[in-house]
Design brief:
- It is a single chain.
- This protein is mainly alpha-helical.
- It has one domain.
- The protein contains 7 helices and no strands.
- Helix 1 runs parallel beside helix 5, helix 2 runs antiparallel to helix 5 and helix 5 packs antiparallel against helix 6.
- The longest helix has about 35 residues.
- Keywords: Membrane, Transmembrane, Transmembrane helix.
Length: about 220
């Protein structure tokens, strides 16, 4: 793989591995909380309605399954990225000609063998990861509002909103996973399938420049 593509692949692989660990830990936390919130003794401080208790348990189940789904998707991404070098090596060299950058990180990886379903796996992972985290947060906030003092509910709600601002801003303004890249004119590429590499790649040496370059090296 070209250096830039390898850098993108390594970055996504590290992110996915870290995401799998985090989602696995959150799934374990949700499983532990499930047994806690299903106990009637948990709601001893106040008499809450059964509907409110059922909502807490439902959110706990949702957090558990979303985080399990995010863990599985992250492992699939790591597996596909691990085989990207082999897939690219098997392809015709003409399909991986060097051109200027055009597109996003997702399109770069798709072009070099990640497959057309790559972006859907990315989105599944991102949606499950954020949904699992949000469900877990809403679950805790709901329980706090049910069982704790009013001022504690207000304070923790503000802290929860503040904690999610950076991640939501990145997701919205970056255009999703692998987004946010500028587009430039492709060179050295066919119209059917354009290669994607940074515009900072070295300019090819023409035949007229070769003698002068060789003379400067002697």
């Amino acid at each position: 793989l070209p250096p830039t593509v390898e850098a993108v692949r390594s970055g996504w692989k590290d992110t996915s591995q870290g995401g799998a660990v985090v989602s696995g830990l959150l799934a374990a936390v949700a499983a532990q909380l499930l047994s806690y919130f299903r106990s009637a003794a948990t709601y001893s401080r106040r008499q809450d309605s059964q509907n409110a208790i059922d909502a807490v348990v439902a959110l706990c189940y949702a957090a558990l399954f979303f985080n399990i789904g995010a863990t599985i998707s992250a492992f699939i991404i790591v597996d596909k990225l691990g085989s990207l070098t082999l897939v690219s090596a098997r392809r015709d060299s003409s399909s991986t000609k060097i051109g200027s950058f055009s597109g996003t990180e997702t399109e770069i990886l798709e072009h070099f063998g990640a497959g057309k379903n790559w972006k859907y796996i990315q989105w599944h992972w991102v949606i499950c990861f954020y949904s699992g985290t949000i469900c877990l947060t809403v679950l805790l906030l709901t329980f706090i509002w049910l069982q704790e003092a009013y001022w504690i509910g207000v304070l923790i709600s503000l802290i929860g909103i503040f904690a999610f601002i950076p991640s939501l801003a990145v997701l919205i303004f970056a255009g999703g996973p692998g987004g946010g890249a500028d587009s430039h004119k492709c060179t050295n590429a066919s119209p059917e399938r354009r290669p994607f590499l940074p515009s900072t790649m070295p300019v090819p040496i023409s035949s007229r420049q070769i003698p002068s370059r060789l003379g400067s090296m002697l």
